[in-house]
Amino acid sequence: MKNAFLTLITVLLIDLCAVAQINWKPTKATVTFSIRNAGLTVTGTFGGFSGDLIFDPAMPGKTQLSASVETGTLETGIGLRNNHLKKKEYFDAATYPRISLRSTRIERQENDAYTGTFELTIKNTTRAVTIPLTIVQKGMTATFSGQFTLNRLDYKVGKSGLLMGNEVTVQVVVQTQQVTTPVTKR
Prior knowledge:
The protein has 2 helices and 10 strands, in the order H-E-E-E-E-H-E-E-E-E-E-E. By secondary structure, it is mainly β.
């Protein structure tokens, strides 16, 4: 009887620590990038977006955002350039089919503005990146957007050269629909 009572108390305490978080299903996503090459700005996109987005504006510290894109979907508008960038020297799409991003910390700044710390993995290299985010919720929908700059050489994408810049600007916009409210632990 005493063990059953202790078990009941433990279960109740665990339940009191449970917090509902909102799960958002991506309905549309765009991932674009730009880089200077031969004095011009080259833009491109990645497709094959997949993401798990758990976010409640009342508890930004409990947010869990993870997403990835398919490396082989790289598109710059020129087929020869696309194929070149998918080769081993650049993205090595055959060996590393996905680029991934996973949040480690989200902090509210003001209104719909947040700052996120993420682990970005390209090829076999993972580095921390800080991304200013905007998360706008309207009823059962929300739009997550952010833009950041990275150094492609940090991820072993190509080599240093005179023609191609090292800084790449990446923009991510994800439109979502609320699907469930899973329970997570505080």
